[in-house]
Amino acid sequence: MQLGLVGLGKMGYNMRERLRAGGHEVIGYDPRPEVSDVPTLAAMVEALQPPRIVWVMVPSGPITHDTICALADVLSPGDLVIDGGNSRYTEDEPHAELLGAKGISFIDAGVSGGIWGLTEGYGLMVGGSEEDVARAMPIFDTLRPDGPREDSFVHAGPVGAGHFVKMVHNGVEYALMSAYGEGYELLAAEERVRDPQAVFQAWTKGTVVRSWLQQLLAKALKEDPGLSRVTGYTEDSGEGRWTVEEAIRLRVPVPGIAASLFARFLSRQDDSPTMKAVAALRAQFGGHAVKRVSESG
């Protein structure tokens, strides 16, 4: 099957390689000439035989919107655009309408797998019409891991459903990572536990907390015992925030996900104003000692 792929970063590059290994013809475009197959977006479209399928794998937000607008100008009726980035689901219907006005179909696809997807395959969550999803299924089947389709692929619903599911997926991911991190810190604080890495390694099989994330933490601890080569500063991609915002809108309690998001905010503070206020209050009402900043700063 022939496919145009826009965006050859960490994910897009590996997806191109996996699709080619699966027998598909992939023509990729990226602003970086060293990885791009063609010099321009228009050249990519020209190289594809209609009806075309173009997969967009660029950062969410303005870049995705601009790319879809540019494709609307050069694609033809009957073509199909798949947004595989981490776009917010509320952007999908406007994009579908923009393309639909020119007879171009649209699918939103949540993709999970990170840099390991090339060899392990990608989990896929898509939104769109039955007809459009069926048309792109050979591509989805090559990207996903081997085994039953239902174990790694879901047609979640109409346009927008795929990115909504991926948003929740990433919110759950936030909470899982925080739980594993808290467990590691507690193990490392106890003198009786000789090797926290060995504990996480032993949880890899048979335990109810085993998972790919848990295995990756065991790997990280083996490569860097004590995690001395990294800081605790942690960014968020936006989807954790969106998950909490949607939970508020739908009145669904998500305390674990919310706490993990706020923990990331806390990680970026060198000296927490909140905890400064707590220390000051303890001194005010209870006369508790306060650790003061020295005059030298």
Automatic annotation (TrEMBL):
GO terms for molecular function: NADP binding; phosphogluconate dehydrogenase (decarboxylating) activity. The keyword Endoplasmic reticulum does not apply. InterPro entries: 6-PGluconate_DH-like_C_sf, 6DGDH_YqeC, 6PGD_dom2, 6PGDH_C, 6PGDH_NADP-bd, 6PGdom_BS, NAD(P)-bd_dom_sf, Pgluconate_DH. Keywords: Gluconate utilization, Oxidoreductase. Gene3D superfamilies: N-(1-d-carboxylethyl)-l-norvaline Dehydrogenase, domain 2, NAD(P)-binding Rossmann-like Domain. It is an enzyme of class 1 (oxidoreductase). GO terms for biological process: D-gluconate metabolic process; pentose-phosphate shunt. Its EC number is 1.1.1.44. Pfam families: 6PGD, NAD_binding_2. It comes from the Bacteria. This is 6-phosphogluconate dehydrogenase. It comes from Mycolicibacterium hassiacum (strain DSM 44199 / CIP 105218 / JCM 12690 / 3849) (Mycobacterium hassiacum).
